[in-house]
C-alpha cells in the first residue's frame, strides 16, 4: 500500500510538471492567455477532489489512471503560477543582455530565463508534491489503492491504531519528501557557492541519474497490471462484503486449482461498472438487490411491476441489460433500519418505528447524506411522511463517522444497516419496521453470465460451489461476524475461515 501511494504521487507529480511548466511558460509569453490559464487551474483547484475523480472516472474508468490524472490536475496550480512568477522575476538587464547577444526567444528562455527561474519553479513543485501526498488518500474511492483504504476503514471501525498508523505514514512520507526537496531547493538558491570539485560533480550526476531511474520506476509501477489470475473480485468498503469475498476465495481455492484475486477496494457502483461490458476487469461481486435497484440502476421500488419481487425484477433486468445474474440469496437482509439509543428505549419504551410518532419532537435524528437525497422513495422525506414523524432536530453526518457521533451523544435516532456489527457496539436497539416502509435488501453474489463457461475446465461445478453460501446466514449471524471484524478487530480472513469450518464447508 505504501509503495502504491508513493508511486501514485510521483507519477501524478511528473505529469503535472510536464503539463504545468509549459503552461507557465505560455502564461509568461502571452499575457492574454495567462488570465485564461490561471483562471482554469484555479477552478480545478477549488473542485472537490472526489467530484473531480468522479468526472474523470466517467472517461477513464476506475483505477490508477483516474487517480493520477486527478492528482496531476490538482497539482497544476502551484507549478503553473510559480513558473510564470519565476520567469517574470528574471532581471530585465539579463534579458536585454541576452537580446543584445542575438539570442532567439526560445534560446534565451532555455539558457537564461529558465535557469534563473528554476528555484521558484522548484518551490511550486515542492508545494504540489506535499499536497499530493495527502490528496492521494481519495484513490481508495475509485479503486486506485494507496493508504486511503486503511484510514477509511479505521474511521468506520473507530480503530485509532489504523487511523494514526495511516496518518503517521502519510506525515512521514510528506516530511521526508519535503526535506529532500528542501535540500535541493537550498542548493539551487545558493548563488555564491564555489564550483564543486570534479569528484563531487560526478557523485551529484550519479545521484541525479539514480533519482531519475527511481522516478521512472515508480511511474511504471502504476501501469504494471495487478496480479489478476483466475477469478477476479474487487474488495468492498464494508466488512460484510469483505467477509463474503474472503469466503468465496477460500471455498474456490480449496476445491479447485483456481486462484481467486481480490483487487483494490472500490465502491459498489464503481465495482459494478468494472463487472459489466466487454472491457470488464472482474468476474464476481457481492451486493444487495435493493442497492442494485436504486444506486446502480437508478430505479425505485415504485418501478417494480405489481406481483413481482424486488429480487426477481432486479435479476431479470441485470440479465437483459448487463448480461450478469444474481446467484441466489445468502440469507442476509441488510436493509435500512432505524436504531435508537438505550436512553430512548428506557425513557419512552419504544419497540417499533410507529412508537416514535408521539415523542419524535423530543428526539434528534441523524443519517448520512445519501439518506437525505431525493433519489427514490426510501429516503428521509418519504420516510418521515409515511410514519408522520417530526423530529426535534435533523443532522447530516458522514457515513464513516455516524457511529462515533451517536456514541458521543450527538443524536438519539439513527438510520443504520440491519446487519452492521457497529450497531451492537453503539448500544443501538433496532426498531421493528411495523408498517413495512423499507424494502428487503437481500445479499447476493453477482456473476457474469460467461464466467462459468470460461472456468468450466478448471472448476466444472463452480456455480454449485458459490451456491453453497445461499441460505447460510441470518441477519443476526452476519451482524455477529461483522462485529468480530469491526469491533473486536479480528482479521477478515480468519473470521471467514472459522465460519466456513464451523459450517462444514472447509477442513481445519
TrEMBL record:
Task: Fetch the Pfam families from UniProt.
Answer: BPD_transp_1, OpuAC
GO cellular component terms, semicolon-separated: ATP-binding cassette (ABC) transporter complex
Which family does the record claim for this protein?
Answer: Belongs to the binding-protein-dependent transport system permease family.
Which species is this UniProt entry from?
Answer: Agathobaculum faecis
Q: Name one GO molecular function term.
A: transmembrane transporter activity
Q: Where in the cell is it found?
A: Cell membrane; Membrane
A single GO BP term for this record reads: glycine betaine transport
| Transmembrane stretches, start-end | 6-29, 36-60, 116-142, 162-184, 205-224
Q: Which PANTHER family match?
A: GLYCINE BETAINE/L-PROLINE TRANSPORT SYSTEM PERMEASE PROTEIN PROW, OSMOPROTECTANT IMPORT PERMEASE PROTEIN OSMW
Q: How does it sit in the membrane?
A: Multi-pass membrane protein
- Source superkingdom: Bacteria
Major localization listed first in the record, in broad terms: membrane
Which InterPro entries would you find in this protein's record? ABC_Gly_betaine_transp_sub-bd (IPR007210), ABC_transp_perm/SBD (IPR051204), MetI-like (IPR000515), MetI-like_sf (IPR035906)
The name this protein goes by in its record: ABC transporter permease subunit
ABC transmembrane type-1 domain: residues covered: 2-181
Keywords (A to Z) from UniProt: Membrane, Transmembrane, Transmembrane helix, Transport
Amino acid at each position: 500500500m505504501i509503495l502504491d501511494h508513493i508511486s501514485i504521487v510521483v507519477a501524478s507529480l511528473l505529469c503535472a510538471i510536464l503539463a504545468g511548466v509549459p503552461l507557465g511558460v505560455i502564461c509568461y509569453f502571452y499575457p492574454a492567455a495567462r488570465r485564461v490559464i490561471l483562471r482554469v487551474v484555479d477552478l480545478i483547484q477549488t473542485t472537490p477532489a472526489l467530484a473531480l475523480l468522479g468526472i474523470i472516472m466517467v472517461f477513464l474508468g476506475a483505477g490508477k489512471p483516474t487517480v493520477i490524472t486527478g492528482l496531476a490536475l490538482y497539482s497544476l496550480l502551484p507549478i503553473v503560477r510559480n513558473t510564470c512568477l519565476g520567469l517574470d522575476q528574471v532581471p530585465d538587464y539579463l534579458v536585454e543582455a541576452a537580446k543584445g547577444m542575438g539570442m532567439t526567444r526560445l534560446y534565451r528562455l532555455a539558457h537564461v530565463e529558465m535557469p534563473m527561474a528554476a528555484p521558484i519553479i522548484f518551490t511550486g513543485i515542492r508545494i504540489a508534491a506535499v499536497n499530493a501526498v495527502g490528496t492521494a488518500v481519495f484513490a481508495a474511492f475509485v479503486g486506485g489503492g494507496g493508504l486511503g483504504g486503511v484510514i477509511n476503514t479505521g474511521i468506520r471501525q473507530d480503530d485509532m491504531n489504523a487511523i494514526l498508523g495511516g496518518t503517521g505514514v502519510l506525515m512521514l512520507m510528506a516530511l521526508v519528501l519535503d526535506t529532500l526537496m528542501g535540500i535541493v531547493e537550498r542548493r539551487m538558491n545558493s548563488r555564491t557557492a564555489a564550483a564543486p570539485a570534479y569528484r563531487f560533480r560526478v557523485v551529484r550526476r550519479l545521484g541525479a541519474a539514480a533519482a531519475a531511474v527511481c522516478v521512472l520506476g515508480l511511474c511504471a509501477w502504476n501501469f504494471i497490471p495487478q496480479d489478476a489470475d483466475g477469478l477476479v473480485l474487487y474488495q468492498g468498503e464494508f466488512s460484510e462484503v469483505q467477509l463474503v469475498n474472503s469466503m468465496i476465495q477460500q471455498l474456490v481455492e480449496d476445491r479447485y486449482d483456481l486462484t481467486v484475486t481480490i483487487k483494490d477496494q472500490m465502491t459498489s457502483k464503481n465495482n459494478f461498472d468494472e463487472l459489466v461490458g466487454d472491457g470488464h476487469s472482474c468476474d464476481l461481486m457481492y451486493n444487495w438487490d435493493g442497492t442494485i435497484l436504486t444506486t446502480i440502476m437508478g430505479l425505485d421500488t415504485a418501478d417494480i411491476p405489481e406481483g413481482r419481487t424486488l429480487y426477481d425484477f432486479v435479476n431479470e433486468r441485470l440479465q437483459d441489460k448487463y448480461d450478469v445474474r444474481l446467484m441466489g440469496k445468502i440469507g442476509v437482509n441488510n436493509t435500512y433500519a432505524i436504531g435508537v439509543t438505550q436512553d430512548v428505549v428506557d425513557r419512552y419504551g419504544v419497540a417499533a418505528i410507529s412508537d416514535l410518532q408521539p415523542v419524535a419532537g423530543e428526539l434528534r435524528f441523524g443519517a448520512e447524506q445519501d439518506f437525505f437525497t431525493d433519489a427514490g422513495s426510501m429516503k428521509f422525506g418519504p420516510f418521515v411522511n409515511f410514519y408522520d414523524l417530526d423530529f426535534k432536530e435533523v443532522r447530516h453526518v458522514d457515513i464513516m463517522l455516524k457511529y462515533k457521533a451517536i456514541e458521543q451523544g450527538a443524536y438519539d435516532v439513527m438510520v443504520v444497516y440491519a446487519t452492521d456489527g457497529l450497531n451492537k457496539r453503539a448500544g443501538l436497539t433496532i426498531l421493528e419496521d411495523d408498517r413495512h416502509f423499507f424494502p428487503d435488501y437481500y445479499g447476493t453474489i453477482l456473476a457474469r453470465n460467461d464466467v462459468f463457461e470460461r472456468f468450466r475446465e478448471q472448476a466444472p461445478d463452480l456455480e454449485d460451489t458459490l451456491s453453497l453460501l445461499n441460505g447460510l446466514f441470518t441477519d443476526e449471524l452476519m451482524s455477529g461476524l461483522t462485529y468480530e471484524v469491526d469491533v473486536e478487530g479480528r482479521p477478515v480472513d480468519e473470521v471467514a475461515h472459522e465460519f466456513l469450518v464451523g459450517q462444514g464447508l472447509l477442513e481445519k
